[in-house]
Amino acid sequence: GCTEAEAKRRLRDLLKQAGAPVLRMSLSPASDGERGCMEITLLRAEVNNERYHYLHWHMERATGWRTTYAEPSQRARRLKPLALLRSTLPEGCRVRRFDYEEAANRVVVQVPGLPKGLLEEVRTAFEAASGLELDIRGQLAFDFL
Question: By CB atoms within 10 Å of each CB, which of 5, 67, 72, 85 scores lowest?
Answer without folding.
Answer: 5
